[in-house]
Amino acid sequence: MAQVIKYIFYDLLRTRFILAYTAFLFISTLAMFQIDSDSGKVVLSLLNIVLMVVPLISVVFTTIHFFNSYEFIELMLAQPVNRKSIFLGEYISVTTSLSIAYLAGIGIPSILFRADYSVYVLLLVGITLTFVFVSIAFLSSVLTRDKAKAIGIALLFWFYFSLIYDGLLLWVVYTFSDYPLEKTTLALIAFNPVDLARIIMLLQLDISALMGYTGAFYKDFFGSQTGLIFSFAILLLWIVVPLWIALRIFSRKDL
Amino acid sequence: MISFIRITKKFGKLVVLNDINLEVSQAKSYALIGPNGSGKTTLIKSLLGLIVPTSGEILFEQKSIFGDWKYREKIGYMPQIGRYPENISVGQLIDMMKNIRGYSDKTDEELVDAFKLHKLFAKKMHTLSGGTRQKVSAALAFLFNPPIMILDEPTAGLDPISVEILKEKIITDKTKGKLILITSHILSDLDELTTDVVYIYEGKVQYNNSIDALKEETNEKRLGKAIATFARQKELLNSITD
Q: Which one has a higher pLDDT value, A116 or A54?
């Protein structure tokens, strides 16, 4: 597997996409720090960028990469190489390169401007989101043979989790506002990795006090040790389950 | 020895392989022939595990290949259309294959030399012509000296000189006792290269015996004629039973 990863990495490093992604994050972070010196506010602004951009870049880059390396995968499969190692090799290479780009892009300027610890939570959240959406993108890539269709499915996932889901959640909360919904919404949030990431992050910043009773309830749950462990465990499920299903499909796929 | 046991492959509603039973054994060379779309490539790809049959089993030295991958060490495969990562050079591709195979014995670079591929080592794969690509495919298939060779239309797209080089190479390897499986539409080539013939039509094996037996049965001297006669007889037979 190490040999396979080596060649995928070699291929990934030559695409300028990763470099452009790093540069984009680097410049945005740098700009934010120059506008505002309060690192809490900077992290909050960065959070909004991260929650939109990281999932989007992850799904688009992964699907494009997967279909571009179709020839490589086909070539490898005629060799004495396990299908599982090819698939996991692809996954590890893509997530690692995207994570490094993300770490460098946000991490380096933050260190330069001596940001507080909340930036490290942001880094962790961003990397977790990268892993989640690369998993989802791999799943949509193995579902179809058509590159355009796969990108479409992946984008639909992104669209759903970033925009549609929140709308639905708001609608539920609004319609049933006469009932105590704290626990229900808590459960519903677990079904969206982006929301989960957002809440973990918000509760690290001192703005949850502005969110009223519900905010206090969330602070009570997510702010605690168990809440944090719970939310990261759910995010871990969001990584493992799509990846596992994708691996199952890939190991029986015709090439 | 490789046995295909009741292999069926469906792509949606289309039945490509229909309950195929076939056994190929070491030290023999087989010509796999049949019209376009008869399922030759699908059969080969299912042996390599690139395609998973809908039902049935493939045994490689008495062991099922399903979920296995080690057995591919013993197979050299030359695809009909060689698809390679486009932005690496010929030299890098060959190095990569050596690394991935983890092959420690001396590699068989006879074809690399004969096709003068050393001159092209710095060239990127996407700049190569179709014929040159075929040469790279052939060189790669023979590189690791595998006991089983699977060649899917090896001579298609090659210039006459290269065809002769490749044919000579196949014949020398045949005499070394390798199992060779060739599909081709150029039957005069197969006449020289193979000892047995497997004729596939509409996803079924219609004929499987030595070339000499087929020639005798049909009273023809050339393989091409013999196959044509066989196909005609078969058709006649079918029209009667229908």
A: A54
Which of residues 8 through 67 in chain B touch A, CB cutoff 8 A? Answer: 11, 45, 48-52
What string of DSSP letters covers A171-230? HHHHHTTTS--HHHHHHHHTT-HHHHHHHHHHHHTTTGGGGHHHHHHHHHHHTSHHHHHH
- Say whether A78 and B48 touch across the interface (CB within 8 A): yes
Q: Which residue of B has its CA nearest to A254?
A: B51
* pLDDT at B38 (0 to 100): 87
Instruction: For chain B, say whether A178 makes contact (Cβ under 8 Å).
Output: no
Interface test with A, best of B100, B137, B145, B150 (most A CBs within 10 A): B100
Check residue A101 and give its pLDDT. 94
The answer on pLDDT for A210 being more than 70 is no
> Locate tokens 């009570």: which residue?
A220
H or E stretch covering B201: strand B196-201
Task: Check CB contact of B87 with chain A, cutoff 8 Å.
Answer: yes
For chain B, give every domain's residue range.
2-241
Q: Is residue A255 included in any domain, yes or no? A: no
In sequence order, the β-bridge partners of residue A53 are: none
Domain that holds residue A15: 2-250
Kindly write down the DSSP assignment for every residue of B92-161, as one continuous string.
Answer: HHHHHHHHHHT--S----HHHHHTTGGGGTTSBGGGS-HHHHHHHHHHHHHHT--SEEEEESTTTT--HH
pLDDT for A50 equals 92
Using a CB-CB cut-off of 8 Å, the residues of chain B touching A74 are 50, 83
Tens of pLDDT along A35-62? 887 888 888 889 989 999 999 999 999 9
**Count of domains forming chain A:** 1
ipTM confidence score: 0.83
Question: CB distance from B81 to chain A under 8 Å?
Answer: no
CATH code for residues B2-241: 3.40.50.300
Q: Do B69 and A81 touch (CB under 8 A)?
A: yes
Q: Compare all CA atoms of chain A with the CA of B53 and give the residue at the minimum distance.
A: A254
- Domain contains A11: yes
- Tell me the mean pLDDT per 10 residues along chain B, length 242: 91 90 89 88 91 92 87 90 86 89 81 91 91 92 92 90 92 90 88 89 87 85 84 82 68
pLDDT at residue A151, as a whole number: 93
